[in-house]
Amino acid sequence: MSARYRHIDPGVLWRACGADRDAYAALAQTFVEHAPPLLARLEAALAQGAAPAAGAAAHALKGMAQLVGADALSALLLACERAAGAGAPLPPAAPLAAACAPALAEVAHSRRHYHGDGA
Q1: 104 near 36, Cβ under 8 Å?
Q2: Contact 35/61 with Cβ under 8 angstroms?
Q3: DSSP string over 59-92
Q4: How far is CA 79 from the centre of its chain?
Q5: pTM, whole model, 2 decimals?
Q6: Concatenated DSSP letters for the chain?
Q7: What is the C-alpha separation between 27 and 71, in angstroms, rounded?
Q8: What per-residue confidence (pLDDT) applies to 54?
Q9: Contact (CB, 8 A) for 113 and 119
Q10: How many Cα atoms sit within 13 Å of 26 on the Cβ side?
């Protein structure tokens, strides 16, 4: 990751898009638009102790996070998904939200500025 991107690796999405700038921008925008409602669903499910809903929301958000190279966020979401599936205690929502916020900001920045050059 570059100095500008500490919470995502925009090269992951860039390569997945075949270095197509329009596709990159569209998928980055999809993340920016859809990740916050998914996070809200996850936070609500965690607050209610609703393991199946938490697992489903964590799984969906994890896939999106992996696509933008948000490895730390993906790892937290995987742990949440696994706990929900195993009937283990669910994690608190705060670390998930704290990891999601900077990833969202970096994806939003990359949508406008990343051109596959590491910047």
Answers
A1: yes
A2: yes
A3: HHHHHHHHHTT-HHHHHHHHHHHHHHHHTPPPPP
A4: 14
A5: 0.93
A6: --SS-SS--HHHHHHHTTT-HHHHHHHHHHHHHHHHHHHHHHHHHHHHT-HHHHHHHHHHHHHHHHHTT-HHHHHHHHHHHHHHHHTPPPPPHHHHHHHHHHHHHHHHHHHHH--SS--
A7: 17
A8: 98
A9: yes
A10: 7
- Rounded to 10 deg, the angle between the 51-67 and 93-113 helix axes is 30
Point out the residues of the chain with pLDDT beneath 50: none
- Measured in whole angstroms, how far is the alpha carbon of residue 61 from the centre of its chain? 5
Retrieve residue 9's tokens. Answer: 């690796």
Which amino acid type is present at position 94? A
The pLDDT assigned to 118 comes to: 58
Amino acid at 55: G
Token pair in block for residue 44: 């609500």
Q: Tokens 């939003």 map to which residue?
A: 108
Whole-angstrom Cα distance, residue 63 to residue 43?
Answer: 17
